[in-house]
Amino acid sequence: MRVTTAIIGAGHTGLAMSHCLTARSIDHVILERGEVANSWKTERWDSLRLLTPNWLSRLPGQGYHGDDPDGFRTMPETIAFIEGYAAAISAPVRPHTRVTSVRIAADGYEVVTDQGTWQCRVVVLANGSCSVPAIPPVAAALPASIRTLTVNQYRRPDQLEAGGVLVVGASASGTQIAEEIQRSGRQVTLAVGEHIRVPRVYRGRDIMWWMDGAGVFDDRYDEVDDIHRARNVPSLQLAGSTDRRTVDLNRLSGLGVRLVGRLMGIADGKAQCSGSLRNVCALSDLKMNRLLERIDAWATAQGLDGEVDAPERFEPTRVEDSPPLGFELGDIRTVIWATGFHPDYSWLDVPVFDRKGRIQHDGGVVHGHAMYVMGLPFLRRRRSTFIDGATADAQDLSAHLAGRLDHALS
Fold first, then answer.
1. pTM to 2 decimal places
2. Do residues 137 and 77 both lie within one domain?
3. Which is nearest to 113 in space by CA: 19, 29, 37?
């Protein structure tokens, strides 16, 4: 089978690219190991809502037209949105087609799947950045009696063993799961590493409204000082909820969650923690206040100060004077790893990786190859992390792809 472009992955980024290629009359196929929105269907916990407001869930040619623009989609609603988009654009998806190898061929690439082989001139990698949980080596030292789960395996509190729960990681997923489990009646210990604290609502508007308007989301990959650092910044410590509550460490400690530093080791039934908890939290507070200063400056420049609430600064993160450097595992029966993910390119047999196993690319254009990547954090703009960011990324990369094809034919 032959096609000009093969897109691997039928999530929102692969579908966004499909829309843009169709608009340019570039024939293509989307190869999907499961079904449209597969990871949303199979790798999310039950109560999860998008942390972006509904109005910010935009894809090429489709915005939000419902009656709750400031609400937050549930997982069933998110799945329906992505499935509906695939149907609306007549995306050429081949479901239940697992890619087993991509290798260089005479006129482009050979994409081998369990349903046959495709020959193509261009490949777009849109299988996302959250394929393989990034579990730290310390996990190997846990006693066999303690059950471990990753974020994409966790579903609800009642699936857990009776007893205490250690959640490792305090970004969006870790804080949301810690709150849910603590409220269920189990004692949660949260191991806190680097995190980005922000309020859900600021000056009467959602923080995403401010970040979108002030241009924070439009910061470009080729304008920041350290793009590798920017691409590894933790997710915002936010939750999408009907009451628009802020879920930060102060809220969690107020609910009774025990805060400890980064998990560093396990020995003799005791967890060892970093002593930097106070510094980590102080740095997060500092970064939050810098963001609020940028928002305040933009609000003033736009003449909004009389239309919104007055600027405010929030109580610093409450951390005990001498955070524990360790604790007995004791009654902890479950550990949940909320320590991030990395992409799975184990089937990619093309020399595109650096020494750390990362794809070498320039804003999604893979170095030295007719290949593109979508769906990675801060791919071309800060908004690339969110569903909304797929539009601009797909438009830019489809234009580059079309130019490459035109040049080859000239």
1. 0.95
2. no
3. 29
